[in-house]
């Protein structure tokens, strides 16, 4: 009813017209912008259709400047006073403009331009503060959002690459670009629906486009250096410092960044750090956990040092080299408490622990990318990555096992020192060639991966069993385990396309993947009870895997419609076993159908459906038959008899985004069902020792739905965003020889409302709600539900011409039925900034967690337990900082 009434009312209000050239031919894709005459900020926008008609709806009352633009034609402007009545401008004629330099003038006037595959925003039309980076600029643009994982999403699609003046910057890593370049050096932001290299070469649409963001620098910043340096000191010895410098010209680009702080501001690859942050050897990283739990967040106290450099050079037109180096060192320490409820179907128990942790990491990351598109017939790309990572984890975990009557039974203290050293090398080569016949082409690709990991683990476990009885027993286990894991992967790909009739093509895709690896384990262990016993284990486990895929499929490709269907023939050869022992060898042949459909009727609209059957071989760790008992309470062993999983995956996607109507709707649905699924087999004895193995049994179902709706209401002066997510995960497990089906359902909704005019005041408020429900078939009395509520508000206001004030309040409520917990956390942050002189000197006062309530809560549910971990976090701190900006100009040029 709301949308019907808005649509009905808009027919009687708004601004409409027809745009033609001097020959009275209608002009399509003409940019029509309604601007605030005081500061040229965008009020509303539209573009013409094939008949040259445009209609600007949802216009607030007032006086505005109407600007009309199309490349190759002279810009048209007109003053308009709108009073909530329909204005019909009739026919507007655009005159030819032969001066191609006018494109520069046009970009400075029109806030938004829409071309066939590109949407371009004039950066000066969107308000940013004098010390903002380009991440803040992106958040202002319509149709752009930065999700909870820090990824940039445009029109419902994750942005895969960010470029500066058409060139890669730090390997195109969005997080580095967004957080290190100042917003005031940017002239234009382009959202590009980039064609694949094959499509650019052959002209045949294959539907394999990616979303790329290109930032165009202001002219004054292109041939001279720019950057900034900042430093701050605060209470409780808090500090930070960062600096960056960039210089770009027509042929080369050079950038240097550095950062150091102890206020929990991360460098790069933070998610990898979190996934390996638990020093105690257990099953926490197992892929078969049955929930859609969010990733771990950073807790404790973090000190970070980051240094990076990027260099790019164009040797000639369409031939370039880009390389970057990144160094990251961090130290994370703190304290956490965990409460876990476990069940075994015969002997349920609870586990509580208190952990002190200290995790450090140092890594070196070098990337390069060479591209040669100088020939009209072929394209060559060569990419490489060399990465070394040294991680050390210390954990002192004091645990207590309690029975269902909440009586203490066993205590343990695990002191763990783990060192992981990783060296990785990757080279990716691709050659695309277009043959004489139009549409006929082939691609040759080669990928090599070399991965060496050395794990040295020392774990001392002190166990006190039968604590509350007359016969307590003590045990000490000292274990040292050294694991050397080497994995080499080589992949060769050949693809050939043959045109048939019209837009029909026959495609052959041949892919061979060679994987070889070895795991050398050397373990010594000393067990002390009444007497001491020592044992030693040493083995080498080799595994090889060759996957050959031949995919023959038919495709129908046009600029709007792409349909393909085919069959893939997959041969899987696996050989594995211990050195000097009988080897296991299996070879299997699979037929995998696939189908895809994509329809893009116009810019901003896409409908997609795909189906694929795939085969997932067991991981080497799942087939390794040797015992990993580093943690005596979580013993893991593989199963050599495992068979591959067979998975059918369905995906549907709907993107409907209109810059004219300021509306966007994006929907993604994913469903996967695995037959012959690899599941976990867990047995738990009376001493709470979990022995974990794997077997093929039953099905695994995963469904994920994600919808995002946004609408701008110019008359009311605000914009709303509604995000909904739903996840369903069902998996079998074996618990003490009983089949257990675990079903986990996650739902979240996020509603945000914010003002449109952000020149002087930026206001945002919203509510977030998430709920997890996990049920167990053999212990339904332990079915679990926990919720998170978050209410938040933010205001950014220029109090006077130079003084900017920003504050945000988050109020979070955690509820958990099983743990009987209701925890309320108000978090209040604020900042004030003031520029000196010509805005190149900035003073800023930052106040974080003023109520000193900040803690971190992480919750997860697995196949036979669920737990909640509460960690101490940084808490309140106040910092006064000074920033110096080296900038060619503060004005748009």
Please describe what this structure looks like.
- This protein has 7 helices and 47 strands.
- It folds into 2 domains: 1-114, Immunoglobulins (Immunoglobulin-like); 232-886, Maltoporin, Chain A (Beta Barrel), CATH 2.40.170.
- The longest helix has 9 residues, at 2-10.
- This is Outer membrane protein beta-barrel domain-containing protein.
- Residues 278-297 are annotated as: Disordered.
- InterPro entries: CarboxyPept-like_regulatory, OMP_b-brl_3.
Summarize the structure.
The chain is mainly β. It has a 26-stranded antiparallel β-barrel. Strands 8-9-15-16-13-14 form a 6-stranded mixed beta sheet, with helices on one face.
What does the secondary structure layout of this molecule look like, with pairings?
Elements (H helix, E strand, L loop, with lengths): L1 H9 L4 E6 L10 E5 L6 E6 L5 E4 L5 E8 L6 E7 L4 E7 L8 H8 L2 E3 L3 E5 L11 H7 L3 E3 L5 E3 L2 E2 L2 E4 L2 E2 L5 H7 L5 E9 L2 H6 L7 E8 L8 E9 L4 E10 L3 E10 L8 H6 L25 E16 L2 E24 L6 E24 L5 E26 L4 E27 L6 E25 L7 E27 L4 E25 L3 E26 L3 E18 L5 E16 L5 E12 L3 H4 L10 E3 L8 E14 L4 E13 L2 E7 L5 E7 L3 E14 L4 E18 L2 E18 L5 E16 L7 E15 L5 E13 L4 E16 L4 E8 L6 E7 L3 E8 L4 E10 L7
